[in-house]
Structure formats: C-alpha cells, structure tokens
Amino acid sequence: MKRFVLAASLVFAAGTAQAGATFDTVKARGLLVCGVHTGLPGFGAPDEKGVWAGVDVDICRAVAAAMFGDATKVKYVPLTSTNRFTSLQSGEVDLLSRNTTETLTRDTTGVMNFGPVNFYDGQGFLVAKKLNIKSALELKGATICTLTGTTTEQNLADYFRANKMDYKPVTFEKQDEASAAFAGGRCDAITSDKSQLGAIRGAQLQNPADYVILPETISKEPFATAVRHGDDQWFDLVKWSVYAMIEAEESGVTSKNVDEMVKSTDPNVQRLLGVSVGAGGGMGKALGVDDKFAYNIIKQVGNYGESFDRNLGPTSKINIERGLNNLWKNGGLQYAIPFR
Amino acid sequence: MTLRATDRPSGVPWYNDEKTRGVLYQVVLLAVVLFVGWWLVSNTLRNLEQRQISTGFGFLWREAGFAIAEQRIRFEPTDSYARALIVGLLNTLEVSAIGIVLATLLGTVVGVARLSTNWLIARLATVYVEVVRNIPLLLQLFFWYAFITQSLPGVREALHPLPGVFLSNRGLAVPVPEFNEGQAWALVGGAIGIAASIFLARWARKRQDATGQPFPTIFAALGLIIVFSFIGWLIGGAHSALSIPEKSGFGFSGGAELSPEFAALLIGLTVYTAAFIAEIVRGGVLAVAYGQTEAAMALGLKSGLVMRLILLPQALRVIVPPMTSQYLNLFKNSTLAIAIGFRDFVSVDDTVMNQTGQAIECVALIMAVYLTVSLLISSFMNWYNNKVALRGSTR
C-alpha cells in the first residue's frame, strides 16, 4: 500500500523541491525533517524514553545544530527501505540519514546526491553455531533468509554465482519476520549488513551466544546521507556537518573539552570552532550558517568517535568493532576533508 | 405529456429548459473529466522530468540479478526482470487457482453442513464460519506460517512417514516420476480418456432422458481416464523411475518440494475465503422455496439426492453472482504473500522497483496485471451465470 502512495506522490504532488530551495525552506521552517530507519538499534531507533538515537540520527542532530544552533530541532520520519528514496524525492524529508548504501545507480538514476560516508559496512551471514560452519563458502545448497527491496538480495545472488554454489532464498518484506523465520529454523543462514546482523543477534535472538557472524564480507556497503540532486547549498551544509564531527575527533575535540579547546592556539582547531574569523567571515559564513556551527555540533552531539561509541561501541547493545570506521590515523577509513 | 424544447412556454429562460440543461451538464462533465485526466498526466510528466527520472519499460529487459526460490519456469539471476515478473505472476496464478477450487469445495461442504439437521455438525460449521471470517486474514497467514515453521521439526529430524516422503519446517518433499519422453504417451492416453468420457456423458444423459435410468457417469469417466492413461504409459515404454528426495547437505535433493510459504498462503486463503463462500452457499440453498424440498421428499428422494439434484442446481442462480466477488477477493488477497515470504507477483515487483527505481512503471504493472486477471475472472463468472440462469427469463 505504501508503494502506491509513492507512485501517487509523483502523480499528484505539485512541483516541489526546486533546486537550491531546501536550505531556505528548512531555515524558514525552523525545523529539519529527517528521514531515518523505522527502528534499527545503533543507527536509528527510539530509546527507552522514546528519544531517537543512533549514528544516523546523530547526523540529523548535527545538521540541526549547524543550522539552528539547536540539535533538538529535528522531526524524525521513519522510512522503510522501499519508500525512503521516494520520500526524499517528493520533498517529504529534507535529508535521508538511514543506513543507505551509496551506489552509482542510486547516485545517477535515483536523483540524489550522497554526502560523506558515515559508516563503512559490508554484507555478511549469521548462522547458528551448532551448524559448525567456519566459512560462507560452506553454505552450498543452504536456505537463506533475506529482505526484499535492498541491495542484499542482489549481492547474495552475485556471491553464490561467483562461487558456483546454489542456494534457496526466502525473501521477506520486514526484518522482524525474516529474523523470526531464521530463529524458527526455516533458514540455515540470514544475510544482511554486518552491523544489522549484530543488531539482530543482540536484540532479536534469544541466546545471542549461540550464533556467529561468518568472517566473509561479500559486499562493500558504504552508508551515506543523501539529499536531493541539484541542491548545492543544502548539500554543502550536510557534507561539512558530517566532516566537522570527523575533524573534531582528529583534532581531539570532544563535547566535554570543547569549551577549553576554544582557547587552543592550534590554527586548525581555531578555524574549526570559528574562533579565528578572517575579514570575509569564517567557515560558517561560507556555508550560510553561524561561524560557530562546528562548535554547536560538537557541544551538542559530540565528535564522530563519541557518537560511534555511544551507539555502536562496547557499552551499547550492538557492540561492534570500529574496524574500517576508525580514523585513517588508526588504520580505518574515516578521513575529514581539511577545514581551511 | 412530455415537454419538448419547442414546447417551452414563453417566459421560461433557456437555462431552465430540460433539454438544454441536459446537454450543458454532459459538456461540463466531459470537460471536467478531460481536464483532470490532462492534469494528472502532465503533472506526472513534469514531476518526472523535474526529478530527472527516466521513464519507459526498457528496464524490463535488463538482467535481474536476484534469485527466486519458488519457480514454475526456470529462472536464473542472469535472466531478465520481465522473466522474473512472469515467474511471480505464475506463482500468483497458481496459488489463486488452487485456492479458488479448494475454497469452493470447502465452502460448499461447510455451507451445507450449517443446514444439517445434525446438531453437532451444524454447530461446528457455525463456529468455523464465525471465527474464521472475523479474524483478519493477515493474522491468519502469520498463524499458519508460524504453525508450519515452528511446530514441524528441522531438516535433520524431518518426519519420514512414508518411504521417500519428508516433512520438515522446510516443507514437504515427495518423490515425483522422472521426466521421460515416453510419458507423453500417458498424456495422450489421458486426453483420449477425457474425450471418451464426454461421449459417455452425452449418451448417459440421453438414455436417462429417454428411459429414466441413471448411469454412474462420474465413476465411469474416472475409470476411463485412468485406464487410457495407463495404456498410454505402457505404450510409452512403462518408465517407472522416480526422483526420490534424499537428505543432502542443508536440505533435500531430488523429488519435488512444497514450500512452507506456499502451503501457509494456500491454507490461509482457502480457509478464510471458504467461510464467506459457506455463507453464500447457505443463503443460496435457503433461497429455494421449502416446497421444493417437500416435493422431492414426497417423491421418495433421499436427503443427499434432494440436495444434489433439487436444491443446489436452483441455488446456483443465487450463489454465482456473490461467488464472483469472493473469487476476486481471494485473488487480490494473495498479495499478502509478501508478509510470509512467498514470491508472488507483488513481491517480485517490489524487488524490481527497488533495484531499478521505476516506481510508476512497476505500480502500473501491478495495476494492469490485477485488473486484467480480475476482469477475466469476472467475465468467466458472468458467462457461467448466464448459463445457469433461467432460460427465457427477462430481467
């Protein structure tokens, strides 16, 4: 039914979302409308108190902090994997921050622009330990639970084709139903992005210790935020809000020490926090917002590392390694473009 | 006395003239319809252009790149999106066709059972109807799916009631004859059997019309079809090799498998729709005047014969029109398949839409397919309705 609404939005919607309009629209509205997951712990889900939390949600909060100086000025719109792109295209949301894999097709035919990658993920397999399987290459002839409407279905087919193995897919629309079928023994393995497998194991299976994520990563899944194509000013703000969080971690600025770091003599930190502003204005002015935009983000949301630890780190339910998501200095891929 | 435009008494303005006003309303209605149609089309095209979405059905010939477990025709990830959609459509048609037949049989039995003079049977049928038709179908599908996958044992502990038959939460695996060209003769034999049965039925009717002697046509026809098929099979070389399922690796190899998803959907649709059909059948039978029953009993017919020869044929005239709606409902309800992981047309279309981003085209395909099949079902039922309607009746 939802998909019908999407097509209908293309048929009925009066022309919205003109190029360059989003920045002004959001500013005038005083509220950011952010498309997030319907409920994926660690990425986008309401916590026990009903407050949205997760690394994707933190991007929404960072953009709101940059724009309004207030990270709470966000309205969250939960979107399924099927309706997320149309919601963005039809102007229902200003920003899509919902563990969305950036691909060439989505970038070109989907009429979107992708911001910086905020999480490097990859597709893997979760199996019961009692199967005694050490590698995904032993899954020949297995029945595998998967979700419709995602890149996982295609990656799965590619992987088994490349390795000349056959398999039986059982395809569901919702993660809960796929997890339930897997837990009930309908499938030998369930496939999804590894971060999601961690969430399934931690939150949806009765004895997490009885299951193991196989070592193979069969696809590259760089999760990035997306905005509408041709909306450059808005795109810039989203992009540099994400980089501000990464740059803050690189420079050692955290939500706790940011007020002292303002006094830092390091020119990098001074530029980031909007302390040294040249005659023509600082970094914020160039983006059309307050020069203290990065300060506001760090103060209210935290740097990239803080956001990761809070939502996905050892103290969270998900408990996954930083791995590729470490800073480049520490052997990972996260790298901020210079603030100068 | 009718007033014509020329009869208009002087003093009545032209816009109050009946004929002029009629024409005016038609013109206004047509203009509104045309404008709304034009607006919808042009707005869609403008929105598509603004979002730089390319339109057209060319994507259907691109490689699908995903696999479908449930397939009636061979499908590989290297095949096209169009073929994937056909696989989905065949799955939809299969489950709907079998569901319609089973729901009709079950519904008729339950409907007649509700009228039974046996207190227990009538009450059981009532409970069935009231419980089943008042619970949402989606919940029932979840129930049947969970029932099958949770209550049956895993593959390694599969139930093994007969040699070569395995029942587990992966479905039912049964032996099937291995395909051999000689077996085509069995089909030829079967066709001859069917043709012979038709002639037999005509002869039997003529004889009954002439002499009143009944003839066990159904049993004779079944016998003819079986005997001729068997002869054909012998002529073809009597190949008796069976493909027998065996446990191997994660599942079974060989034989044919019935998946839990298909079974759950079929059971769910059948049980649910049968409850509505039962009420239609009951209503149809009750619509036949009680005098018919009394007259039949007075002739000495047994109650089974009264139902089969007197009541049901007359009840059909009342039953067929509402039955059409139930068949259409069952067909459309089969789209709930996606919730329990069965690859019907909508489920496959969903994947195609997400991989290609062609939302308008994919939704248009769904509308076209369901509209076409629904119209086919209803025109078939209308034809059948005309056939059972009273001859020479004017409506």
Describe this structure in words.
The complex is a heterodimer of chains A (340) and B (395). Chain A has 340 residues and is of the alpha/beta class. Chain A has 14 helices and 12 strands. Chain A has a 5-stranded mixed sheet, sandwiched between helices. Chain A has a 3-stranded parallel sheet with strand order 4-1-5. In chain A, strand 8 (143-147), helix 6 and strand 9 (168-172) form a beta-alpha-beta unit. In chain A, helix 3 packs across helix 9 (232-250), helix 3 (55-68) packs across helix 13 (293-300) and helix 9 (232-250) packs across helix 13 (293-300). The longest helix of chain A has 19 residues, at 232-250. The N and C termini of chain A lie far apart (48 Å). With 395 residues, chain B is mainly alpha-helical. Chain B is built from 11 helices and 7 strands. Chain B has helices spanning 18-50, 81-114, 119-133, 137-151, 184-211, 217-235, 260-286, 290-298, 303-333, 345-356, 359-388, and strands at residues 166-168, 171-174, 176-177, 242-243, 246-248, 251-253, 256-258. In chain B, the strands form 3 sheets. A 3-stranded antiparallel sheet of chain B has the order 1-2-7. Chain B has a two-stranded antiparallel sheet with strand order 3-4. In chain B, strand 5 and strand 6 form a beta hairpin. In chain B, helix 5 (184-211) runs antiparallel to helix 6 (217-235). The chains are: A alpha/beta (340), B mainly alpha (395). The interface between A and B is large, with 55 and 49 residues.
Mean pLDDT of chain A: 87
Tell me the strand order in the biggest sheet of chain B.
Answer: 1-2-7
Low-confidence runs of at least 5 consecutive residues of chain B: none
Write down how many β-strands of chain A occur, each being a DSSP E stretch of 2 or more residues: 12
Contiguous helical run count of chain B? 11
Biggest interface, residues from each chain: A-B, 55 and 49 residues
N- to C-terminal distance of chain B: 27 Å
